[in-house]
Amino acid sequence: MLVSSPLAGLVGRRHGSRALSAFGMLVGVLGLAGMTTLDVHTPYWEGLVWLTIVGIGSGMFNSPNTAAMMGVVPAHRRRIAAGARMMLRNTGAVLSIAFVLAVITNAVPRDTLLQIFSGLASGLSDERLAPFIHNMHTALWVLALTSVVGAIVCLMRPAHVVEPRVVRARSA
Which of 31, 75, 82, 99 is least crowded, fewest Cβ atoms below 10 Å from its Cβ? Predict the structure, then answer.
């Protein structure tokens, strides 16, 4: 996100935010779908690759999407709009975390969950970890599907292009 968000802001300013936001969501879908290939024996670098792709997609979505939202709000209402946007963003984050935890902990024995969440999972057998991994993949697929819906919603909104300001030379 550190790199893709500012770049997406520049591209969105010149070419519009609708397609760029949708494309960012789809890049995130690619990362989430890739994360479903991870299992107990996957090297850490593979997880890092998929998480990086999710981060790039998030950056491509967030910056132009925020600009599009704030660009249609009158200047005297932007503080209210920014507060409402952050409230909705935080609510979405909390709900998605609750959803993921509810899905991945379903049908996983309590002692296994305690070992996983306390960092002691290295001693667990593959068959004891299998339900947790399966449920995590299910949650990731649902999040990917939700992101596809988000990309469609992005494409349905009106186009938003911020015209670059013209700098006029001062007369001497």
Answer: 75
